[in-house]
Each structure stands twice: as C-alpha cells, then as structure tokens.
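Task 17 of the worksheet. Students: predict the tertiary structure of the chain below and write it out as structure tokens. Keep your answer in the requested format; marks are given for formatting as well as content.
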Amino acid sequence: MEVNTNNLSDKAQLDYKLVLKAIDGDQKAYADLMDRYRDAIYFMLLKMVNNSSDAEDLTIEAFGKAFKNIHQYAPNYAFSTWLFKIATNNCIDFIRKKRGSHVSIEQSQDDPDNVTITIQSTTPDPEEHYINQQKVKMMRSVVSKLKPRYRRLIELRYFKEFSYEEIAEELELPIGTVKAQLFRARELLFNILKNTSSKI
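Model answer:
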C-alpha cells in the first residue's frame, strides 16, 4: 500500500525511511533512530523527573517501548511526535507510581493555613509482602536465563541498585558500553517475560 508522506518534513521523511528499514530488521536503522533522538528525549525526561539516573532509565524504556511497537507507527505525523508521546506517557506513569511512596502535603484552597498531610504507609501487609517475595523470586528465575554478562548487569542495576558509574567501575567497562549492554539485557529480559506463562 502506497503511503503519502508529503505532509512530513524532510527530517520526518528520513525518519520514516529508517522506520521502514527497522521494521525489516535493519539493526543499524534502530541505532540511527536512537542516535537522532536519545539526547532530546533524555533532556525532556530530565526536566520531568529532575533525576539523571531515572531519566537515563526512562529514556531506555521509551526507546524499548517504541521499538517494540514500531510496526504500529503510521506517518500521519512525525515519528519524533510519536516517540515523544510514548516517552512522556511512560514518564507520567513512572511519576504516578513513585508519588505513592512519598509524603503528600496539600494546602486547602478555602483555608491556606489549613495544610493536610497525607502519609501513605510504606509497609506492605502480609499478603502484599508474600506477593512481592514471589515476584522477586520469579524475576530472579527469569534473570538467571540470561547470558552471564547480561545477568550480571541486571543484578547490579536492579537488585543491588548500582549507578551506571558504579557498574562501569565494577565491570571495568566504558559507561557507554554499560548503557548499551543494559539496553540489550532489558530487551532480552522483556522477550523472556513475554514468553513466560507465569506473569509477574
């Protein structure tokens, strides 16, 4: 089917050509798309979350989701618009989830001096604790199926909560390599989870 891309700018038309190549399995096209937008996505997310480590993770997640669903992109509008929407929505979900574990201080509109402080309990009830334990057990089981180098990266980043800098130092790797390999590790992990009958 012939697609009309006349409504797209030259930049957006080049993006669309890369998208078509990526859909056909061209790995370089994926890398080119990531290179074109990684910094812009990262700095947009950094403004939203004000934390460089979270912004890095959310950038990787945004590209992961976009590439996983790239066949759904239609050139009615620019690829960059579609990508930024995915990144923004994913970030909003992240902020909402994170807010649940923080203290919320609200000021009444009727009475500015009347401040309501809502503190959400961070201690799970016994049932939640059991479910969380099962999730961790399941996740460790899935991670164990990865190749050793990817398994180590996931363990350091998500189980031990190392920063990218700490992982680079621990594994004696350039930080760029750590980020690239973590992206690949998460992609592999996602594929394993997708094909796992027991959902986490």
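Marker's comment: Residues 27-49 form the longest helix (23 residues). The two ends are 39 Å apart (CA to CA).
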